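queue> pop job 88
queue> type: inverse folding (structure -> sequence)
queue> payload:
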């Protein structure tokens, strides 16, 4: 479903991603962790071309990401993204947020867009908030709307960039529960997160990134109980200490 081969990216002269390789199969769940600044966000943003890479290849569902705008559009329709700070449109209601892209990008008829939006709002368990504005919701509710909004485009792949790290602790579970349910439905997912309980239950493979490189890549059992690289061990000791 996703193939990344010897992919490099620079911000000006700063070499931020240094030869990443990754193959993700349909239905696979990947968790990416690593210290702040290691390139996790940049990596997943390259997968839907919110950032462009300069060397190597990224192929998403058989479409290679190049300067070709048509190909970028094709890939963006298949890839949903959820950000740390929700990025909902504040002047649109929850329902309008969910219908916007299906109406304007996918050209779905209005009645169908509304029905799909309600279906996904039910799925993330907030149909009763449909007519409110994002500012009237809690952080956990806003993030669930952001997930529903992404799902309304019927993506084949979902990317999550630290979806719970801006939330108050009591709201983390409600968002993780939605992500766990989504994983159970067979969605192909790449999640940047430091929720290691989530990684253990849901991930097929866990990646540890540091300084623009994939340092370690292993199934969670192996990753947590027997990390091979010293940098991974050190990182896990730091985050699992508390
Ligand atoms: N738009 C940008 N321009 C220049 N440098 C950037 C930009 N975005 C991120 N960086 C730098 O690239 C590195 C990786 O950032 P990022 O991908 O956000 O890391 P992470 O998500 O792992 O915290 C950091 O050193 C960051 O400062
Ligand atoms: Mg980040």
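queue> result:
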């Amino acid at each position: 479903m996703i193939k990344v081969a010897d992919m490099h990216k620079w911000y000006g002269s700063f070499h931020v991603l240094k030869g990443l390789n990754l193959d993700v199969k349909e239905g696979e769940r990947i968790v990416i962790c690593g210290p702040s600044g290691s390139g996790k966000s940049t990596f997943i943003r390259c997968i839907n071309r919110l950032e462009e890479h300069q060397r190597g290849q990224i192929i998403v569902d058989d479409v290679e990401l190049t300067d070709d705008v048509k190909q970028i559009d094709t890939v963006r329709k298949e890839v949903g993204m959820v950000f740390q700070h929700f990025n909902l449109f504040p002047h649109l209601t929850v329902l309008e947020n969910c219908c916007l892209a299906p109406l304007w990008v996918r050209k779905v008829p209005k009645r169908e867009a509304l029905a799909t939006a309600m279906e996904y709002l039910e799925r993330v368990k907030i149909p009763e908030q449909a007519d409110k504005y994002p500012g009237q919701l809690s952080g956990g509710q806003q993030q669930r709307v952001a997930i529903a909004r992404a799902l309304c485009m019927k993506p084949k792949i979902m990317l999550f960039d630290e979806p719970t790290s801006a939330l108050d602790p009591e709201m983390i579970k409600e968002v993780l529960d939605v992500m766990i349910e989504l994983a159970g439905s067979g969605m192909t997912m790449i999640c940047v997160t430091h929720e290691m309980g989530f990684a253990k239950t849901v991930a097929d493979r866990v990646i540890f990134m540091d300084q623009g490189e994939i340092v370690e890549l292993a199934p969670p059992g192996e990753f947590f109980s027997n990390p091979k690289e010293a940098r991974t061990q050190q990182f896990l000791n730091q985050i699992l200490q508390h």
